Amino acid sequence: MEGVLLMLNLYKNIRERRIELKMSQDTLAELTGYRDRSSIAKIEKGEVDISESKIREFAKALKVSPGELMGWDEHNSQTEHTPQGHKGVVINVLGRVAAGIPIEATTDIIDTEEIPEEMAKTGDFFALKIKGNSMEPRIMDGDVVIVRKQDEAENGDVIIAMVNGDDATCKRLRKYKDGIELISNNPSYKPMFFSDMDVQTKPVRIIGKVVELRGKF
């Protein structure tokens, strides 16, 4: 039932966002690879299902993130940057976080993002560009996540972690009495369980918690 409601939200949001942008159905059809407006009309009425890849195309055409189009409100607005009139703090967007190199010393800086000053006062932050599809459909390849640097996290948090000396990875954390599990949103990827001993010996190291997602196209 929840999946049906999400899809109904999707069709409704497509129509509302198109109207908000004063975009015609013909234009949206052209931007998303459909032959004419009739296909868009059917989609907006919920008469035709669309694939995950098409959701990304619609999101790009309508200048929002896939999550916003689906109606997910986690982290509030994913594409909202510092509100107008509020002072912001610029942080670096990293292309990768390499093992063995302090974040402060990372030279793989590919862009910058701005966060509210109020947020910046709560800790040290960096941004990371996501590579790969392991966290789809919530976090897409190319999205940017805002990360608060910390070495501990709560059950269910989305974290940035390093495992066995590899580069940092984005996963959801699940805690057990005898260890932890790093979970991908994409069911094609199996959860990775690490015993308490594994955490110490591999090691598995949490370097930050994802606090915001900003979709990029």
Automatic annotation (TrEMBL):
The name on file for this protein is HTH cro/C1-type domain-containing protein
Q: Which organism is it from?
A: [Bacteroides] pectinophilus ATCC 43243
Tell me the ranges covered by the HTH cro/C1-type domain, including all copies: 14-69
Name one molecular function that GO assigns to this entry. DNA binding
What lineage does the source organism belong to? Bacteria, Bacillati, Bacillota, Clostridia, Eubacteriales
Q: Gene3D superfamilies recorded for this chain?
A: lambda repressor-like DNA-binding domains, Umud Fragment, subunit A
